[in-house]
Design goal:
With about 525 residues, this protein is of the alpha/beta class. The chain contains 18 helices and 21 strands.
């Protein structure tokens, strides 16, 4: 044989060895969930969660049911649009449909924040053509062709000639060419169709100090807490930790246990991220305004930085904005959008979010189903890729950042230990007893490939963990927990009802003794057995 022939044969043997190793890895990670190469991408339950925004296209109870069946875990109510009665009816319908399906879903109320938006238009939108002029006016009236109105009164005073105005997350661009009495004359640099209530960004304009919570936000938050009892409140345009603490005070005054999602979309928030993560319950990578404020070219690296920072501290994180934007009017996504969703999964995000795709899109249920399919394929590849996330978790975490509510690293330590044990015994799932949800979040932060069944007596805890990667809540009977042996038998029976099988290995984390509701301090392995007659 020639040297070239020998080299070719050697490469072929190496490729065969690599293929065998990869197949073995996939089988090891997924055999416990009984997923082969066909069923894995059709019938499996994704680890990464899906948040869907509701609007005119998805408000009907029939559509809510389709969305839940397609894979939605959390519904987002955007308080930038609609009125209180609409939101109240949506909330009632969500709870009714979830009860009908015997599933728990969470509700996230998204506060508008100090965002500048255009008013409505008589025909729901206007066309902006490059090179044409358009007038910007601070007014309550509707816009018409050639006139854009906004309720933000300082816009004329603050803007200067030559400064840009970005519309609809930067899709359209204007430039101020003249200041007139009570209005701005602008030239269209980049055109498009401007719809009702789209955002206006002024990246080079000094707007002064805007409040973290506007009067509208405060009123909306109080209404939502009193009438909707949401599981999450999302705070827009967070800049510093005190912004989150201000909303926390409103929640405390209402006597609610609602959790806060800090939306990271300002450069100031990036600079203050460590402090913000110290006071928030969850984070949203709000890439629309983040791209406008920081530049689209920085969004990919900022997304990774924010997600990694959340992983280091055990903070659930949502990746949002334009994830499947083309499906607003198309029955399939683009390759770039599929890659975007997959990369968010590989970054380690807990959830991915749909906005206009499900709120006003033509294919809301199909979009959710497509996103779910992409997630499953991405998670399948993640397992075959030697668990890239786990390598990050094991080698790059700073223990000083992993302190839990007790001020120790015990929660994170037990979570990592449980994940290692699960891999060694080929466990198919975790069972986690949690009063607050914190233990489940700590375990999930270790990014295991198995699902985590979270047992809790509290509905608000069950709905909190719905947002967390891999977590499925199961409600325990109210009252004092039984002794450990009885509790474990109860959980065994519940997992068998969830589709696990006798003989399956499960890793449980629990606080012992259960009588005193101790913090999670024990990790043990059980092989499921049928309930005793």
């Amino acid at each position: 044989h020639t040297p070239a022939t020998k080299q070719r044969q050697q490469r072929q043997r190496q490729q065969q060895q690599t293929t065998t190793t990869t197949t073995t890895t996939i089988t090891k990670l997924h055999s416990g969930l009984r997923m082969d190469k066909v069923t894995l991408v059709k019938d499996a339950r994704p680890l990464c969660k899906i948040v869907a925004t509701l609007g005119p296209a998805s408000a009907a109870p029939e559509m809510l049911e389709k969305l839940i069946k397609a894979g939605v875990n959390v519904f987002r109510l955007n308080f930038s649009h609609g009125d209180y009665q609409d939101k109240k009816q949506l909330n009632v319908d969500i709870r009714a449909v979830a009860k009908k399906l015997a599933l728990e879903v969470a509700v996230l109320v998204d506060l508008q924040g100090p965002k500048i938006r255009c008013n409505t238009f008589k025909d729901d939108g206007i066309a902006l053509k490059r090179g044409e002029n358009v007038v910007i006016k601070a007014s309550e009236e509707q816009g018409v062709p050639g006139l854009i109105t906004t309720k933000f009164q300082p816009i004329v005073e603050r803007c200067e000639v030559g400064q840009p105005l970005l519309l609809d997350d930067g899709l359209m661009r204007l430039e101020v060419i003249k200041k007139e009495q009570g209005s701005l004359l602008c030239k269209v640099i980049q055109g498009g169709v401007l719809k009702n209530h789209k955002g206006i960004n002024l990246p080079e304009t000094n707007l002064g100090v805007l409040p973290a919570l506007t009067e509208k936000d405060i009123a909306d938050a109080k209404y939502a807490l009193a009438e909707l009892d949401p599981d999450f409140l999302a705070l827009s345009f967070v800049r510093k930790a005190s912004d989150v603490e201000q909303l926390r005070q409103i929640i405390a005054e209402a006597g609610k246990q609602c959790k806060i999602v800090a939306k990271i979309e300002k450069p100031e928030a990036i600079n203050n991220l460590t402090a913000i993560l110290g006071v928030t319950d969850a984070v949203m990578v709000a890439r629309g305004d983040l791209g406008v404020e920081a530049g689209n070219d920085r969004v990919p690296s900022l997304q990774k930085y924010i997600i990694r920072s959340c992983l280091e501290r055990g903070i659930p994180v949502i990746t949002a904005t334009q994830m499947m934007e083309s499906m607003t009017h198309s029955s399939t996504c683009t390759r770039a959008e599929a890659s975007d969703v997959a990369n968010a999964v590989w970054d380690g995000t807990d959830a991915v979010m749909l906005s206009g795709e499900t709120a006003v899109g033509e294919f809301p249920a199909e979009t959710v189903a497509m996103m779910r399919q992409v997630i499953l394929q991405a998670e399948h590849a993640l397992g075959a890729d030697n668990d890239l996330l786990r390598r990050f978790v094991e080698h790059e975490f700073d223990p000083a950042m992993q302190k839990d509510s007790s001020g120790t690293t015990l929660g994170f330590t037990i979570g990592r230990a449980a994940r290692v044990i699960a891999d060694e015994v080929h466990a198919v799932a975790f069972g986690c007893v949690s009063d607050t949800g914190n233990a489940a979040i700590r375990l999930a932060s270790a990014r295991p490939m198995q699902h985590i069944f979270v047992f809790s007596k509290h509905v608000h805890t069950a709905r909190r963990v719905i947002l967390v990667r891999g977590c499925t809540p199961l409600l325990l009977p109210r009252g004092q927990l039984p002794p450990v042996d009885e509790l474990l038998e109860l959980m065994d029976a519940a997992l068998l009802q969830q589709g696990l099988h006798p003989g399956d290995a499960v890793v449980y984390t629990v606080g012992v003794p259960t009588k005193t509701q101790a913090s999670t301090n024990t990790c043990l392995v059980r092989f499921l057995q049928p309930a005793k007659c």
